[in-house]
Amino acid sequence: MSTSSPSFTFAIIGSGMIAGVMARAIQDAPQADLVAVTSRRAESARDFAREHGIGRVFETWQELLAADGIDAVYVATPTAVREEIALAVLDSGRHLISEKPFLDAASAERLAERAMAKGLAFMDATHFTHHPRTQEVIETQRTRLGHPGSVNTSFFFPFMDRDNIRFDPTREPTGAIGDMGWYNMRAIVEFLRPHGAPVRVAGQVRRDKDSGAVIRGAGLMVFADGQTSTFDFGYDAGVCQMDLTILGEHGLIQLDDYVLDWKDGFAFDHPEHPTGFVVRQEMAAPHEFERHTSAQGQRQAVQLVEHFVTMAQTPNSPEREQARQRAVATQRLVDAFVASVDHA
């Protein structure tokens, strides 16, 4: 719990694993305080509150949104039911952090439009975009590499627990596409920065034989000016892989932990590991690769919370529009990939 009597208060709707990650981030953020929680099962909400030291537990999300003393809500419910709750958060006058993915781009657009109409902040809960390294990579690409021609990513996590919500298409309709593939798509938005929708999308997925859930995928996107992105993702490779390569006109940038940094991403705790990235140009041999170390400070999840609080407290800030645009743009790419495999 913060000790500086913060004035910006959060509530959480949902009590799963990722909600616990964000609960710790909110509590570690100097400007924020976590004051309330609710979940589909009341006992889960009470257990979550005990674990995280949260003072107020509500039986339903409707009761939570009727309560006083809450400035913002983080919604971590299953994708299939999230839009109704997220819209209600905005209609109650609270700022919104929503888990991803969204049902589709139209759903993301409705949230973005409602937030804008209400004068509220809306952000999706993508952590890596808030790491200082992300802006360092973008600036290095701009000054050293020139126009980005391609972004290639791979994100795998060994996770074949068929009792998990990810294996239930009724609650998570796109499975690993919306879960893991979201980060491949977000890397396109952040680092390739294409103009317009892809003009060509090709993809392939693998589905779990029992549940029918998507557990693995790979694809290609081509954009109007010739920019490309290749990507793959999934649960069934038996390894954690988080590789990103940006190819420009004068070299490349590589990361091997672009989603959850090895140093202290929520799945890792290696405080001595130097978080950074590699720059390669011309005929550089491995001993000549430039290894850049990035100052991190707080964990990227904590920085997400801090950036959100600042954005919420700054009406009409350009960051609000940028956050809305990034959420919608990422979901549009997810939808484009889903359409490519649905019609394959």
Please, could you describe this protein's structure?
The structure is a single chain. The protein is an alpha/beta fold and 344 residues long. The protein folds into two domains: 8-124, Rossmann fold, CATH 3.40.50; 132-295, Dihydrodipicolinate Reductase, domain 2 (2-Layer Sandwich), CATH 3.30.360.10. The protein has ten helices and 14 strands. It has helices spanning 17-28, 42-52, 61-65, 79-91, 105-118, 132-145, 176-179, 181-192, 300-312, 318-342, and strands at 8-13, 32-38, 56-58, 72-75, 95-98, 122-124, 150-156, 200-207, 214-222, 228-234, 241-247, 252-255, 276-280, 290-293. The strands form two sheets. It has an eight-stranded mixed beta sheet, covered by helices on one side. The chain has a six-stranded parallel beta sheet with strand order 3-2-1-4-5-6, with helices on both faces. The longest helix is centred in the C-terminal third of the chain and has 25 residues, at 318-342. The radius of gyration is 20 Å and the shape is globular.
List keywords for this structure.
single chain, 14 strands, six-stranded parallel beta sheet, 2 domains, 344 residues, globular
How do you describe this structure in short?
With 344 residues, this protein is of the alpha/beta class. Helices cover 36% and strands 23% of the residues.
Relative strand content: 15-25%
> What would the average pLDDT be, to the nearest integer?
95
Number of helical elements: 10
Sheet with the most strands, sense and barrel status: 8 strands, mixed
Spatial order of strands in the largest sheet: 8-9-10-7-11-12-13-14
Count every beta strand, where a strand is a DSSP E run of 2 or more residues.
14
Q: Which descriptor suits the 3D outline? A: globular
Rg (CA only):
20 Å
> CA-to-CA gap between the ends?
50 Å
**CATH top level class name of the largest domain:** Alpha Beta
